[in-house]
Design brief:
Layout lengths: L2 H25 L4 H6 L2 H11 L1 H10 L2 H27 L5 H24 L5 H23 L8 H19 L2 E5 L4 E5 H38 L1
């Protein structure tokens, strides 16, 4: 066999192997996580993360127009949080990716908003430290509980905390005094003052809910220790 024939056979072998790899790649099924990712609830969740840079840009200059845009964007993101959870339960699309990304998207959006509000001087830094510290502590306890096979349900005080916090952040984003027509009467609303009051209330509920969660966590640990004994 001459050199030219050997070279041709070698090239044919390489080409055949390349085609086989391409065929195996085409026939390979996507991973379970990748299949779970591409559904509407998870895409809405990823959309909330994707708009965070835009929200930060709106709140950077913080004039009345951009403040309203930031408040509108935060409101839309909060609404999609409710929608994606509803769709996931309604369409039976609760996935591992969704369980991971949904709370992460919520925390990233709230953290970005609180940090920007602190930068603008619309909320004291200690409030943000308390709120973010609470989230880290509760998330850590939740991870430990899950690793031990324990599920601690969120209490009503936690739901109040979330509601007050979201409305408070929207009010802080608006910030300026606007004349509002409430049909029954008209008034000038100081949204910065309203936002601060709501965030202070959410901080109180945040500390309360963290204490309740920690108490429930200790009670579950005590119960398991008693059963083991």
């Amino acid at each position: 066999m001459d050199r030219q024939t050997k070279r041709r056979l070698k090239q044919e072998t390489k080409l055949r192997k390349k085609e086989e790899r391409a065929q195996r790649k085409a026939n390979r099924k996507p991973s379970v996580l990748l299949e779970q990712f591409w559904n509407l609830p998870n895409m809405l969740t990823m959309g909330r993360i994707a708009v965070i840079p835009l929200f930060v840009w709106f709140t950077y200059d913080a004039d009345p127009f951009y403040s309203l845009l930031a408040a509108s964007l935060f409101t839309v993101a909060s609404v999609t949080d409710v929608i994606d959870g509803f769709l996931a339960r309604r369409w039976n699309m609760i996935t591992v990716v969704g369980k991971l990304m949904d709370p992460l998207a919520d925390k990233l959006m709230v953290m970005a908003a609180l940090v920007m509000m602190t930068r603008l001087g619309r909320v004291p830094a200690w409030v943000v430290i308390v709120l973010l510290g609470r989230e880290l502590i509760v998330s850590g306890l939740r991870q430990i509980a899950a690793s031990e096979g324990m599920v601690i349900a969120a209490g009503q005080e936690g739901k109040w905390k979330t509601s007050l916090q979201l409305v408070g952040i929207v009010s802080l984003c608006i910030h300026y005094v606007h004349h509002m027509d409430f049909l029954i009467y008209e008034a000038d609303v100081d949204f910065n003052l309203l936002g601060k009051v709501l965030v202070y209330l959410s901080t109180a509920f945040s500390v309360w809910s963290a204490a309740v969660y920690f108490k429930a966590f200790l009670a579950m640990l005590g119960g398991r220790s008693a059963q083991g004994a």
